[in-house]
């Protein structure tokens, strides 16, 4: 049993930023590669000490864990989401750590309504397991799926896989029916990925500090080295995010800092895939966007409009904004959908 806690050695390291010098004696413990033998040895020593210190209450820990897990319905499915000709949902299994991504054919061509429900039972279309995380996780100490995106036609699925916990994902594309891989994997991407039609993927990569800084366009079947950088955020106080509009007609790329954000949009239907400015970079103004019909809807917040205002602009003329809901001192606008 380890009787004393491990003590990390001190190695003086100078960090200079904005004319200020900071001394860090434990900077050597930073290892983004997670492969430095000295760092790993120290972490193992800390874990061993913690395990030894808590060994006399390990049985209580196990009892609490079993009680918590016993209150969870393990064999379950989440609420199905209808998209195209399929219902998509996740299934959890008793005794398994990971989920299955499933789909079931919609038995009718009718429009989606609030009463729409996935059929189950003997007469329902067969369930198809698109991706089983339990199978994919075999042989890995850590496994996480960061994104699961179905192509517009429903024929392909793109998913991001992390096997070491650093949230730098490898992006794979598979045939939704056969599970066979399509094209080559994309390395070092974030969990923000979206389809831009059935032939293109848009994804974000990170810099050396794991700041999401580049948004890229990948043509299915091509090599990642040939991917086009649509935008590079060089200001290190900003980070990029990516999402599809609820209409699925546009992709939004949002660059944000603590008090400022601005948005680009990409029209999926256009042959030439490029980003266009939706809201400009104006320091102190934070924006969020949605789309429906022929208009973009933008929630805009600033120091003066601290409870936000809602504006709309035609999708073919984003400079022509109309205020729909003005700022109100006693009413806060939390979100936009």
UniProtKB/TrEMBL annotation:
PANTHER family according to UniProt: PROLYL ENDOPEPTIDASE, PROTEASE FAMILY S9A OLIGOPEPTIDASE
SUPFAM superfamilies xref list: Peptidase/esterase 'gauge' domain (SSF50993)
Domain Peptidase S9A N-terminal, residue spans: 5-332
InterPro entries found in the cross-reference section: Pept_S9A_N, Serine_Peptidase_S9A
GO molecular function, one term: serine-type endopeptidase activity
Name of the protein in question: Peptidase S9A N-terminal domain-containing protein
GO terms under cellular component: cytosol
Domain of life, per lineage: Eukaryota
